[in-house]
Design goal:
Blueprint lengths: L28 H29 L17 H24 L2 H20 L5 H20 L4
Length: 149
């Protein structure tokens, strides 16, 4: 390109010369912060799911038993599901905080599993299940918008 005086014009500041002038794709500070926050949320959510699983395995009276629920499982079975998912989510959250690229992909998958298990356990612990679904949506979003530099 040239200017009206015939000299070359400078590329726009957002252009990347190695890609032929295409805008750079990277992470802003808030994206990196959201991924860090998503990792912390995953660790906390995983630890709370571990506790929820232990409570269900011990057959505590904290959970409401719904007699005609289509996805009704034994409370001990739900406890083991939550315990296993909780351990995996907490470990993966630690990996996200450490910046491991595998942890973001696994984190998206595990947050999806966590969301499904929270939805299926909705009649047993409704308010907490809705909170977990909302947190898992945030985690999936935050891990999906991050790009490797």
């Amino acid at each position: 390109m040239s200017t009206a005086t015939g000299g070359p014009s400078a590329p726009p500041p957002s252009a990347n010369r190695s890609t032929g002038g295409a805008p750079r794709v990277g992470n802003s500070g808030w994206v990196t912060g959201m991924v860090l926050f998503a990792g912390v949320v995953m660790m906390v959510n995983g630890i709370l799911e571990i506790f929820q699983g232990i409570m269900a395995i011990a057959e505590d009276d904290v959970f409401v038993k719904t007699p005609k629920y289509i996805f009704q499982f034994d409370l001990t079975g739900w406890g083991w599901i939550h315990l296993i998912i909780g351990v995996l989510v907490a470990v993966t959250g630690f990996g996200v905080i450490r910046g491991a690229s595998w942890a973001r992909i696994v984190g998206i998958f595990l947050a999806s599993l966590s969301m499904i298990s929270a939805f299926l356990s909705l009649p047993y612990y409704p308010l907490w299940s809705l909170v977990v679904v909302a947190l898992d949506v945030f985690v999936i979003w935050a891990l999906c918008i991050y790009r490797e530099d």
